Every structure is written in structure tokens, then in C-alpha cells.
Amino acid sequence: MIYSKLALDALKKGDMKNFKKNYSLALHEDNDDYLYSLAEELYGYGITDRSKKIYLHLLKKYPDEDEIRTNLADIAIGDGKNDLALNYLSQVKKTSPAYVKSLMVAADLYQTQGLPEISKQKLIEAHQIAPGENVIVFALAELYYGSGDFTKSIPLYINLLKKGILNYSSVNLVERIGMAYANAGQFDHAIGYLKQIKPAQMSSNIKFELAFTYLQLHDYENAETVFKDLRNTDSQYATLYPYLGEALEKQHHNDDALKVYQEGLGVDQYNEKLWVKAADVSLKLNLQKQAEKYFIRAHDIAPDDISIALKYSNLLLDQKRYQDNIHFLNQYVQTNDLDPQIYWNLAISYQNTDDYQLASDYYQSAEPFFFDNSNFLKQAALFFREAGKPKETKKLLKQYVHLVPTDQEMIEMLNEYH
């Protein structure tokens, strides 16, 4: 009578009474090979306490069997007993047939401890010893992928794919390779893999990555098609809306893009980037009041985002609302790491409100940052000329003519100061 088999049969039927009975009998009556197989089966079912009992029983009889130690270490990790796991693993010598397996278990241990670099070292060592072991190749590929080192994960996944392995541990390798190429910015390669995935097997993340890849390749029609498919199947996937809108804008479908951004804001009203995109496309459609509302909403969500502040400031300048612009930008003047564009925008505003002293101060503050910007140089030079400051005017004109040697009017103006 093989009690190990009877115990497993009872377990599969959910007959715990007979399972416990036959498990106890197996410990006393079955040979060690059957017991070892029972322990492995029980571990697979997640009944680690009983599999551990068998392994400990066998380790007393076979103290040189390092395979048992690695199994016990694996169970200890699952129980949160990392020191015990390390103790078992430290006893496995490099000459042991179980050494590669011990490296795999150690890699798992260090990963759970938040030490991915040590985990990677263990897996690399295991791969060097047994480069053909699929489980090691996959584990190392997953570690690289999970840590964002996509270019190193790709050849490992391809290694498995060349062996005819399309799925490993419930992971679609074609998908992984495509996603890895996309995340590595190699969009031409990514598209070739992502397109191979059957529509029924495409998750929302894969659809997004495929559409985003089309977008990076400037294939806006296909990007639009896939983003819309994603929207139809998962309308709460908030990340799609900025990019679907972008694909539409690139095709000059600005009205449709605005509707998409508005729809996205219904899904995620706290996404300041969506508010900005809605504002930007509103300006393209000459909906300035609407754009202003959107910029203000974006600024309310992310008041420290200077790029948003500058977009709103530029709108105020375009509308010649110079006093409003001064009031708005003054909140940033005392902050550290001030964007120099704020100096320029304030200079324009003070100039147009006839505060020439402050306009002069801000033009001079902006000058070092825009000394290679011909638009700034021309504007500032004309201001200083009007303000009666020849030294500053000549300096700016000289630099402007150096950058734009074909502007005859400004050359003649410069000659006045010689």
C-alpha cells in the first residue's frame, strides 16, 4: 500500500480526514522516494507545513542532500523566516549539484528583501553555470524587465522564443518582447512583435503600448484606431485620452481632439496635463475664454508647474492684459530656480504699463538667458533705445546683428551708435 498516493487522492477529493490519516501512515510506512514526491506535491498545493515536516525528516537521514536544503529554504522564505532560509542556503557548497538551485532560491530571497542588485548577481551566476536552463533565463529576463533594464531582458526572452517557447509561467513572451522594445524606445522593433498578438489576447496595457508605439512612429491613423478600440473596451483607462487627442491633433482634427480631452477629464478631472492639452487645442480653435478656464484649472491642480504658469502668462500677453499678467507672475518672483521666461514676460508687461524702471530691471535679468535668442535681443534693444540707454542698446544690437546679419534695418540702427 502506497500511503503517499492515497493521501494525495484524498486531498484532490477534499477528503481531509483520509488525507491526514494516510499522510501519517506515509511518514511511517512509505519509502523515502515516495515521501519526497509527496512533499513536492504538497508544496505545489501550498501545504508547506506538511511538506516541511517530510523534508526535515528526510534531511536527518540524508544530511548531504542539498536539494532538500534548498526546498526548506524556499519554504522558509514563504514563511517570512529569511534568516533560516539563509542558513540553509549557506550550507550548499559550489560543488554541490543543488548549487544552481540554491542561487535561484537566494535570488528570490533577496528580491523579497528589496535587494534587486544582489538578486541579479545570484541569477547572473546561475546563468553562467547553466546558460541553457530555461527557468534561469526567464527569471533573469523578468528581473531585468522589472527593474527597467529592457535592453538586457530582450535577448533573454528571444532566447526562449527561439526554442519555440511562446509562453512561460503564464507570460506571453511575444508580448514581453514587444513591450520591452517599446519601453526601450525601439519602436520599429516593438511594432513587429506587438502586432503579432491576437486581439483576444490583448490586455488594455498591450493595446495602449501598441497605440503609443504607432504614435511614436508617426502612424497617427493606426494610433487613433487602436486608442479608440482601447477606449471602447476600457473607457476608464485614463492614460489613453491625452495620446488619442494628440493623434487627432496631428491629423488636424482639432474639434475631435477637444472632445476627447473633455471626455478624458470626465474620467480623470485631476490630470493637469489633460487640462493643458484641452487649453492648447482650444487656442487652436480660437476659443480663448475656454482656454483660459482650462489653464486656470490646470494651474489650480499644479501651481508649482512653471510650464503651466507660463502658458497662462503667454495667453494674458496675447490678450494684452499686462496688469493681470504682472499680478499673476509676481507670485513666482521670489521662488528659487525661477524660469527666465518669467523675467521676459514681466519685462514686456511692465514696458506696456509704462513702468520703465521695472521693465529695464527684468530685461536685464532675462538677458543672460536669452543672449542667443534673436527675438528677445531685438525686442530688448528697441526698448532700451526708446528708454534712452545707448550702452545697453548697442550691446544688444551688436549681438542681434551677429545672429541675424540680413536685417538691414537693425544694421543701420547699430551704425548710429558707432
TrEMBL record:
Domain Tetratricopeptide repeat protein 21A/21B fourth ARM intervals: 173-232
InterPro entries given in the database record: ARM_TT21_4th, Tfc4/TFIIIC-102/Sfc4, TPR-like_helical_dom_sf, TPR_rpt
Domain of life, per lineage: Bacteria
TPR repeats: 238-271
Organism: Philodulcilactobacillus myokoensis
UniProt keyword annotation of Repeat present: yes
Protein name per the record: Tetratricopeptide repeat protein 21A/21B fourth ARM domain-containing protein
GO cellular component, one term: transcription factor TFIIIC complex
Keywords: Repeat, TPR repeat
Pfam families linked: ARM_TT21_4th, TPR_8
A GO biological-process term: transcription by RNA polymerase III
